[in-house]
Predict the structure of SCP domain-containing protein.
Amino acid sequence: MHRLFIFCCFLQVSSSYVIFNGTVRAQIINLHNTFRSNLAFGKQVWIGKSKNYPNASRMFWLKWDDALATSAGKRAASKDWNSYWMIFGLPSLTYTPSTDPINDHDKESSYQLFTGNTYAVGCAYQIVTPNLGGYVVVCHYRNKGLNANTPVYVVGTTCSQCPAATSTCNAVKGLCVMN
């Protein structure tokens, strides 16, 4: 299991949230892309299913987006996180709002990391229990566009459906890289 340590390298503080910078930002991107690479190659364990997720034919390499980080920071600052729980793993490869483990207006958020068309991420954090050192990290993703009862990503041979006009395949990572 990867742990993210965030005790240094912050870019900006805005009211009660912090946007990551430097080394931590690079770690966030690396962790996201490592997860997505494992997913694309069918090596990512499907928690609760005793098997791996199937290969993805089109899964994009994520890049950092400052606007998404600001949006994530505003979201982190707008919610009472003290009673919020996150469940990892998808109930199915078909996006169905009622099966999303996050039961509030962020319905799509738990699926965005898995979504093949997602190509950008921005994250921020907020301290939720100052005396205990507790914090919450919120990440926002682009391209959204999940539709109910549709696949989260297309299953198939890794990198076989990278759009030739706008991306190339990084064969080592198994991810489509936007031009």
